[in-house]
């Protein structure tokens, strides 16, 4: 299956992506993880990305699309993949569609994680990553509302969107995501 996870910061995309990719037997890619690793290793792309990550801003589309494009070209994506945190803008979604036309294999599912804002704050505050300060969380939620939330309509119009209530234990959310994917496959 070819799947993307969308949803606000702290919704649990990364938590579920590892399990769901294993369940589906597909490659998982978290653009956030790739960017943070590149930053921590002081790679040129990471030093540039770090300027955005630490302020809670989205990294420019061209940088993220280049990472995904490289990844998609690898053999281990041939039987499917799960992108966690990508796309995050309409520009990224359109770029992904273009890449998939080249591969001849359209997206099967976009899973939107739905979590109320106060719960997001609690989760991120407890996680305590360097971009989880209160001011940065607010900035990330603001960017999410403006830049990422419109993706739900984009994928709904293509008939591949499923919204999942992501409040509950990780096991409960995992089951709901699997049910949503089964529903798409049925
Ligand atoms: P990401 O790395 O994608 O992370 P996130 O949105 O903060 O969190 P996620 O939803 O994965 O939540 P998690 O499972 O960790 O993005 C970070 C930054 O990278 C962005 O702000 C941006 O700057 C940059 N970036 C990434 N992709 C980009 C792109 N495509 N374009 C441009 N910029 C990009 O869970 C959060 C916490 O909740 C954890 O502590 C977890 O343990 C907890 N949790 C999870 N599920 C739970 C549950 N069911 N109940 C209670 N707690 C739960």
From TrEMBL:
<feature type="binding site">
    <location>
        <position position="140"/>
    </location>
    <ligand>
        <name>AMP</name>
    </ligand>
</feature>
<keyword id="KW-0418">Kinase</keyword>
<comment type="function">
    <text>Catalyzes the reversible transfer of the terminal phosphate group between ATP and AMP. Plays an important role in cellular energy homeostasis and in adenine nucleotide metabolism.</text>
</comment>
<comment type="subunit">
    <text>Monomer.</text>
</comment>
<feature type="binding site">
    <location>
        <position position="127"/>
    </location>
    <ligand>
        <name>ATP</name>
    </ligand>
</feature>
<dbReference type="GO" id="GO:0005737">
    <property type="term" value="C:cytoplasm"/>
</dbReference>
<comment type="similarity">
    <text>Belongs to the adenylate kinase family.</text>
</comment>
<keyword id="KW-0545">Nucleotide biosynthesis</keyword>
<feature type="binding site">
    <location>
        <position position="92"/>
    </location>
    <ligand>
        <name>AMP</name>
    </ligand>
</feature>
<dbReference type="Pfam" id="PF00406">
    <property type="entry name" value="ADK"/>
</dbReference>
<feature type="binding site">
    <location>
        <position position="36"/>
    </location>
    <ligand>
        <name>AMP</name>
    </ligand>
</feature>
<feature type="binding site">
    <location>
        <begin position="10"/>
        <end position="15"/>
    </location>
    <ligand>
        <name>ATP</name>
    </ligand>
</feature>
<feature type="binding site">
    <location>
        <begin position="85"/>
        <end position="88"/>
    </location>
    <ligand>
        <name>AMP</name>
    </ligand>
</feature>
<dbReference type="InterPro" id="IPR027417">
    <property type="entry name" value="P-loop_NTPase"/>
</dbReference>
<feature type="region of interest" description="NMP">
    <location>
        <begin position="30"/>
        <end position="59"/>
    </location>
</feature>
<dbReference type="GO" id="GO:0005524">
    <property type="term" value="F:ATP binding"/>
</dbReference>
<dbReference type="InterPro" id="IPR033690">
    <property type="entry name" value="Adenylat_kinase_CS"/>
</dbReference>
<feature type="binding site">
    <location>
        <position position="31"/>
    </location>
    <ligand>
        <name>AMP</name>
    </ligand>
</feature>
<dbReference type="GO" id="GO:0044209">
    <property type="term" value="P:AMP salvage"/>
</dbReference>
<feature type="binding site">
    <location>
        <begin position="57"/>
        <end position="59"/>
    </location>
    <ligand>
        <name>AMP</name>
    </ligand>
</feature>
<keyword id="KW-0547">Nucleotide-binding</keyword>
<keyword id="KW-0808">Transferase</keyword>
<feature type="binding site">
    <location>
        <position position="129"/>
    </location>
    <ligand>
        <name>AMP</name>
    </ligand>
</feature>
<dbReference type="GO" id="GO:0004017">
    <property type="term" value="F:AMP kinase activity"/>
</dbReference>
<keyword id="KW-0067">ATP-binding</keyword>
<comment type="pathway">
    <text>Purine metabolism; AMP biosynthesis via salvage pathway; AMP from ADP: step 1/1.</text>
</comment>
<dbReference type="InterPro" id="IPR000850">
    <property type="entry name" value="Adenylat/UMP-CMP_kin"/>
</dbReference>
<protein>
    <recommendedName>
        <fullName>Adenylate kinase</fullName>
        <ecNumber>2.7.4.3</ecNumber>
    </recommendedName>
</protein>
<feature type="binding site">
    <location>
        <position position="168"/>
    </location>
    <ligand>
        <name>ATP</name>
    </ligand>
</feature>
<keyword id="KW-0963">Cytoplasm</keyword>
